[in-house]
Write a structure and sequence with these properties.
eight-stranded antiparallel beta barrel, seven-stranded mixed β-sheet, 10 helices, 23 strands, binds manganese (II) ion
């Protein structure tokens, strides 16, 4: 029912060649998206969910927060709802060929009857997105013969607190709100074939077999002090929801520690796994929300979930338990983590939803004192060559950081090396690429941390 609405959309595309969705028409909602699209010319596509499809306008110069800027908006064919998440590269030679990112997304509301307003060509609505907010106006231009039947409108911002006559939002916030990538990065990304595809069967003790549908999580035992032996590695302890990501044929389920499927509660986050080069995988990690210093805060996670702000969520991956036909739980932890970095390589950067939880090997005391200064929750130490064992064991231990309020703040204000925080939280990143360097994770500059 209603699929005739997508006839024009489908006629223009060859779905055997483009990664765009063929689309279905389903229940109505109130989401919106603004795609940034580099096709034959660069433009932005405003799409509003209405009557089970996305009403679409191509805006060559993009939206402006300045009410004085009236931007041409050419109505284009209705797009399917599934398109709201679409980010990727439409192949050259196909309709609209070129890269496209989710530049902004959120919810919208009409200020009047949207059908009547669209009909009469004077359409006011509100947006609640990450970049675009408040009242907006679309007004239809009178047709001229040279328009050849094109349906042209003007898009502009209403005067309200969400307007801004100073900032050019297009240059201030060029990135995808879905993945943090800029549109140039989609084009510049090396072909996946060039990367070293992870080979799970080469790991010691890897066991060939079907993907388990349940995993008994390994838990850390509390300890008073960090283990001193050299064969331990040390990770930041996150303050969020421990979560297993089950990836299967492009779909990801996010399962709580208690075995509940919370995939739907996490907004866009499950989609972040879709680009990984695997058919099946189980990744152990923690879902968190980071504060402005890059530190995970449970309160912020709860706020984000209750507000439905799914695009603030980050998944810190710290273990790989299964990959493409191989159960890796009997393999040594450091080998599993090395394979995990390979799987994630190229799919994460400082603003992406996926992160890798790097570690230090050997003496973790510098990391521990730094964690205390920064007000992190603590450290999890793990036997570097240990298998993954369900339940609480002594091969993973958690050590709480020392915390006193004043001291934490002093630890911060002191430092030019606020980068040091980044180093702990997210500095696995060099120029947008994950770089694994063996003993000490990239960014863990030991002399700096020890200072
Ligand atoms: Mn377009």
């Amino acid at each position: 029912m209603g699929s005739e609405k997508l006839q024009t959309y489908r006629r223009k595309r060859d779905f055997s060649k483009t990664p765009e969705p063929a689309g279905t028409v389903s229940e109505t909602g109130n989401r919106f998206v603004v795609h940034k699209h580099s096709a034959s010319s660069d433009h932005y596509d405003l799409r509003l969910e209405l009557d089970g499809v996305l009403k679409s306008w191509a805006v060559p110069k993009g939206p402006s927060l300045n009410p004085a800027d009236k931007r041409l908006a050419a109505a284009t064919e209705d797009h399917p709802l599934d398109y709201i998440d679409f980010e990727g590269v439409i192949p050259e030679g196909e309709y609209g060929g070129g890269p496209m990112i989710v530049w902004d997304t959120g919810v919208w509301a009409p200020m009047g009857d949207p059908h009547a307003d669209l009909e009469k060509g004077s359409f006011k609505f509100r947006l609640a997105g990450e970049k675009l907010n408040g009242g907006w106006m679309l007004t239809r231009l009178k047709g001229k013969p040279e328009d050849k039947g094109r349906d042209n409108w003007l898009l502009f911002k209403e005067r309200d607190p969400a307007m801004d006559t100073e900032i050019d939002i297009l240059t201030a916030r060029p990135e995808s709100v879905k993945t943090g990538r800029r549109i140039e990065e989609l084009v510049a990304a090396p072909a996946p074939a060039k990367r070293n595809k992870p080979v799970p069967g080469k790991l010691p003790n890897a066991v060939k077999g079907p993907m388990p549908d349940k995993i008994d999580l390994q838990l850390a035992s509390p300890a008073a002090a960090l283990p001193k032996d050299a064969d331990w590695l040390h990770e930041i302890k996150f303050d969020g929801y421990r979560t297993l990501a089950f990836i299967e044929d492009g779909k990801t389920r996010l399962i709580t520690r208690g075995g509940l499927d919370w995939t739907r509660r996490y907004g866009d986050l499950p989609g972040a796994f879709a680009a990984l080069d695997c058919k099946q995988a189980i990744i152990d990690g923690e879902i968190v929300v980071l504060d402005e210093k890059g530190i995970s805060r449970f309160g912020k996670l709860q706020d984000a979930l209750s507000e439905g702000a799914g695009n603030k969520l980050v998944f810190y991956a710290f273990d790989l338990l299964y990959l493409d036909g191989w159960d890796l739980r009997a393999s040594p932890l450091n080998k599993r983590k090395a394979l995990l970095t390979q799987l994630l390589a190229g799919h994460i950067n400082a603003r992406s939803a996926l992160h890798y939880s790097d570690h230090m090997e050997g003496d973790g005391s510098a990391l521990y004192s730094r964690a205390s200064d920064m007000g992190l929750e603590g450290i999890v130490s793990k036997r570097a060559n240990g298998p993954y064992q369900g339940g609480r064991s002594s091969s993973w231990v958690k050590v709480k950081a020392l915390q006193t309020g004043d001291f934490i703040i002093a630890g911060y204000t002191d430092s030019e090396d606020a980068g040091g925080i980044g180093a702990l939280g997210m500095a696995e990143w060099v120029d947008g690429e994950l770089q694994y360097r063996g003993k000490v994770g990239t960014g863990f500059d030991v002399p700096t941390i020890a200072r």
